[in-house]
Design a protein that fits this description.
heterodimer, A: alpha/beta, eight-stranded mixed β-sheet, 9 strands, B: mainly alpha, three-stranded antiparallel β-sheet, two-stranded parallel sheet, 12 helices
């Protein structure tokens, strides 16, 4: 059925020639792209590969790791090769959300020390073979304070030049705060996704983080508003997404509604986007991943929930 | 002339009888009614003959009974008629008699009329019984349908309240779980894209969207590029930050060609301060870029272990040189078994001697 593009404006039919802005891989390294989901079309990759995206927020607990896991797996389902890096030195969580905690044997610290090679530290997801996880460190290991940024740059260069080819996306899960971990994580990034919740504490921290990112030279910053409750917005107990956008002045990548499935998926180690009938939040993450691929942003947002209109016969249980 | 009161009294009397009674039309010239002090009652006209007016026969007290009762009572205000002469009386009597007959006829006709009215206006129950049963059944079915629908809605509402959130039945109701998935008979979902699939339906006019069974209202984004640039300028003024490139411990001097804004001071008690000089950066970089072979540290450990083993073996050789192999045989105990075993032992000894010499040669 026809799909009026209310959510995105960068919709093109699949058979148009690629625009000059899009990066075309060298024929020798191009791999056949297979998508497990039966789409009528695939999202068209925009920008130069590898696209290095840092997911940050400033405030802790707003959903960075959840966004990293779900967006990363969505990208893998679309057929792109993804490497997710958990840049939290000391508090590692991304492996838990992905259900790969028992398979992390080596981290970047071991690679730097020479205990293993980089490909031995990459954990390949058995569900999606084009998704790999790389953790910076184990909880008890240390990384020199001025050394992390360089290490990440070396890592990205090594990933670009590996024999199986450069990944399409390198997604870095940034730790909370604006300290050494934040500086380390944003070092190799070209673009950023800012995750925030519609409350004033998160917004103030987010504004500061945006300022630091812009000072560091990262201009392509998009926003994901997480844990949105339309009932509270309607009752004016929560800021609307448009209010948040007005305060921060960033284009929207996605709006994720509050969903209890997030907690279940976290505890089970099974990301939301893999649920067979997709949940509301899972669909929102998929849409955000689609827009990330096409470098698009939202043009309309969900404001409030409306009562579903029922027909005459619905009174009789229809 | 009959007064209004009398007519009203008569109507009151008639109300006591059955439905559909009509008033008797009595010529007013015949009877004169007088109001009593207490109640309205018939007053008998004082004539030679008592006037008896029969109304509709019923069980209630009839006016004639009341008039008979009134005869015994004392009358204070009784009107008297004028005296009538004998001749006049006969004519009047005849006239009176004719009038009575007409009254009787009238009453009979009125009775008949009343009866006809009763027969022509049957009560509702009689109408329902007499008419066809279709309309009755239609009414009953409508009432039953409305009752059923209300009961069903009530039951559904109650079951929703009682159903625990997150249960399998709740997930199936919300459309987040298909019953076929649990039985392994569901087909794979085919959706065009995350924006337009069975779980995402755009409303008419694109003002609403239905996602996972819930309908949401949409509003367009109002942020313009001008507003974005205003925010960027505001932040560039508010936040001045430079990436730290030089990390110094407390007490170290700042190099002359280094921007002080890029210096990061590490406190002495910082957990990462102790690891600054542990890792050689060039070595680390080489470790990261290594794609094949044994990792550096493992190779180094392996080499170190091999060296140690060789050193140990060299020490053993030195120790073993002090013992003569032939002399060692003299000290061996005699074998209790057959000679074949002795030969085997000799062969084994030769083999062990050869292997040790080979090892020493290899190392």
């Amino acid at each position: 059925m026809a799909s009026p593009r209310l959510f995105s404006t960068c919709h093109q039919p699949p058979f148009l020639p690629p625009s000059p802005q899009r990066f075309v891989k060298s024929p020798a390294k191009r791999r056949p792209i297979r998508s497990a989901l039966q789409f009528n079309r695939k999202p068209q990759l925009a920008g130069e590969t590898p696209r290095i995206v840092v997911i940050t927020s400033g405030k802790g607990g707003v959903g960075k790791t959840t966004t990293t896991a779900n967006v990363g797996l969505s990208l893998a389902r679309y057929g792109f090769s993804v490497v997710a890096i958990d840049a939290d030195i000391g508090l590692r969580n991304l492996d838990l959300l992905l259900g790969l905690e028992n398979r992390v044997n080596y981290t970047v610290v071991e690679v730097l020390n020479g205990d293993c090679r980089l490909d031995q530290a990459l954990v390949r997801d058995k569900r999606w073979s084009n998704f790999e996880l790389l953790c910076i460190s184990k909880p008890r290991s240390k990384l020199p304070i001025g050394f992390g940024g360089k290490a990440l740059e070396w890592l990205v260069e090594a990933l670009k030049s590996r024999p199986e080819g450069s990944p399409d996306f390198i997604i870095i899960d940034c730790p909370a705060g604006i300290d050494a971990g934040f500086i380390t994580a944003i070092t190799p990034a070209n673009e950023a996704v800012l995750v925030t919740t519609p409350d004033i504490t998160a917004l103030r921290d987010a504004d500061r983080v945006i300022g630091l990112l812009e000072c560091d030279g990262i201009r392509d910053i998009k926003m994901v508003v997480n844990r949105v409750r339309t009932d509270m917005i309607r009752g004016e107990d929560m800021m609307s997404v448009l209010d948040v956008q007005e305060m921060l002045g960033l284009s929207l990548l996605g709006v994720i509604p509050e969903d209890s499935e997030v907690i279940r998926s976290t505890n089970r180690g099974f990301p939301l986007v893999l649920n067979k009938p997709p949940t509301l939040a899972g669909l929102a993450f998929e849409q955000a991943a689609w827009r990330l691929v096409e470098q698009d942003s939202m043009k309309a947002v969900v404001v409030e929930e409306e009562p579903k209109k029922r027909g005459f016969f619905s009174f009789f249980g229809g | 002339m009959a007064s209004i009161d009398s007519l009203q009294f008569y109507s009151l009397c008639n109300l006591q009888s059955s439905i559909g009674r009509t008033k008797l039309q009595i010529p007013s010239s015949l009877v004169v009614f007088r109001r009593r002090h207490r109640n309205l009652k018939w007053v008998q006209v004082e004539t030679n003959q008592k006037f008896v007016c029969k109304s509709i026969a019923d069980d209630s007290s009839t006016p004639d009974e009341e008039t008979q009762n009134d005869d015994n009572e004392e009358d204070n205000d009784v009107a008297t008629t004028q005296s009538i002469t004998a001749s006049d009386s006969e004519s009047s009597i005849s006239r009176f008699r004719s009038m009575i007959t007409t009254i009787a006829h009238d009453s009979e006709s009125s009775i008949l009329k009343l009866r006809s009215m009763v027969t022509t206006l049957p009560p509702v129950i009689f109408v329902m019984k007499k008419s066809s049963g279709n309309s009755v059944w239609i009414g009953i079915s409508i009432v039953a349908t409305v009752l059923l629908a209300s009961l069903r809605a009530y039951a559904i509402r109650k079951s929703r309240d009682n159903r625990p959130p997150g249960s399998v039945s709740d997930l199936v109701r919300r459309g987040q779980l298909r019953s076929g998935d649990r039985r392994g008979i569901s087909k794979s979902l085919n959706y065009e894209d995350p924006f337009n699939n069975p779980f995402v339906k755009l409303g008419k006019g694109s003002s609403t969207v239905e996602m996972c069974g819930k309908v949401y209202k949409l509003a367009p984004v109002t942020l313009t590029e001008k507003e974005q640039s205003i925010h960027q300028k505001r932040r560039s003024r508010a936040y001045q930050w430079k990436r730290p490139t030089v990390f110094l411990k407390e007490g170290d001097t700042v190099p002359p060609d280094v921007d002080p804004d890029t210096v990061r001071w590490i406190p002495a008690n910082h957990p990462f301060a102790t690891t600054v000089s542990d890792i050689d950066q060039d070595l680390a970089q080489n470790n990261v870029y290594q794609k094949q072979g044994v990792p550096f540290r493992i190779r180094a450990e392996h080499e170190a272990m091999q060296k140690k083993l060789e050193a140990l073996q060299n020490e053993e050789k030195l120790n073993n040189l002090g013992i003569d192999s032939q002399n060692a045989r003299d000290f061996q105990r005699p074998y209790k078994f057959s000679g074949k075993l002795e030969e085997d032992d000799d062969v084994q000894e030769n083999h062990t001697g050869n292997s040790s010499s080979e090892e020493t040669q290899k190392s």
